[in-house]
Design brief:
The chain is mostly beta strands and 100 residues long. It has one helix at 34-40; strands at residues 16-21, 24-29, 47-48, 55-56, 69-72, 75-79, 90-92. The strands form two sheets. A five-stranded mixed beta sheet has the order 2-1-7-5-6, covered by helices on one side. Strands 3-4 form a two-stranded antiparallel ribbon. Strand 5 (69-72) and strand 6 form a beta hairpin. The protein is globular. It binds FE2/S2 (inorganic) cluster.
Amino acid sequence: MRIQQHPILKFKKENRVNFLFEGKEVYGYEGETIAASLHALGIWEYGEGAHSHTPRGLFCAIGHCSSCLMKVDGVPNTRICVTKIKEGMIVEKQHPRGSL
Ligand code: FES
């Protein structure tokens, strides 16, 4: 879900940015974080807990908790809630810890 209209705030959706999530082409808009783009597309599961193996998603959404760690362009343990999207980037789930 993406907010389309607001009585006070303006949301610019200028440049669409395409990237890959788990091998599928998805999109967001320039200036958004990976998490914001995925969340707007209804994708809320980004990995699993190291011990419980239960689904993980956003928790703090400000880069403090590590709940949203994913592999981005081959780099594990990337906090997607504070990482902006780029054209052609590859985003993958981690199971359960990152590896090189
Ligand atoms: S959701 Fe907490 S660091 Fe990303």
